[in-house]
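Quick one, tokens below:
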């Protein structure tokens, strides 16, 4: 089987889970996914095996396959990892930013604003991802970014869910992205450090609000906070 077909099936199914097209606790099946996504049963089956290993689905014998709940412990651990890694990546990117990178990031920021104005949640999240991922690329740390996308799926689910909660407007994210980008362009190391800490701490500030609004989507914390 073509590797691209396998990857396409994996990418599409994982996207549906992270973007809440398939909801936590929802029962899914090879047949349903094959039909709705117009994919062959074999690549779907292989993709589900990979996605199960990542903890996004679970197979319950004599019952079926279900999208897992969001594990809040894993969300918090994922945020901790990002807070340890990303400020250093940003500092590295600061020394390597070219006019071409700046143009690309400017375009991304404009598209973020447009997506926010049109309340395009999927598009806004994807642009948010691209914004952060671009700095890993600038710093020559694409492998780390890919590792994070593979291992930080619970944090990404939380971040995507946050966009669905009324009252948590997107202006906060847009403003923080603009300030981070400006600090990097201005070579302002101290400001960048503070801004990155605030940005990556936002998940902790908003955690209870998100969990209160979608209580059925989460497993409860198993460790003291």
């Amino acid at each position: 089987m073509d590797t691209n077909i396998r990857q396409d099936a994996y990418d599409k199914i994982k996207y549906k889970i992270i973007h809440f097209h398939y909801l936590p606790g929802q029962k899914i099946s090879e047949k349903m996914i094959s039909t709705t996504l117009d994919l062959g049963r074999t690549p779907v089956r292989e993709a589900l095996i990979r996605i199960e290993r990542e903890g996004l689905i679970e197979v319950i014998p004599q019952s079926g396959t279900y999208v897992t709940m969001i594990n809040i412990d894993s969300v918090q651990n994922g945020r901790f990892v990002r807070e340890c890694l990303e400020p250093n990546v940003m500092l590295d990117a600061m020394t390597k930013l070219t006019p071409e990178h700046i143009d690309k990031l400017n375009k991304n920021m404009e598209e973020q604003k447009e997506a926010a104005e049109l309340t395009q949640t999927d598009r806004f999240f994807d642009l948010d991802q691209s914004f952060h991922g671009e700095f890993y690329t600038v710093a020559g740390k694409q492998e780390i970014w890919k590792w994070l996308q593979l291992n930080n799926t619970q944090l990404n689910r939380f971040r995507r869910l946050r966009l669905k909660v009324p009252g948590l407007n997107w202006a906060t994210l847009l403003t923080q992205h603009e300030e981070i980008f400006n600090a990097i362009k201005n070579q302002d190391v101290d400001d960048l450090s503070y801004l990155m800490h605030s940005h990556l701490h936002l998940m902790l500030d908003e955690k209870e609000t998100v969990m209160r609004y979608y209580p059925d989507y989460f497993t409860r914390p198993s460790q003291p906070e």
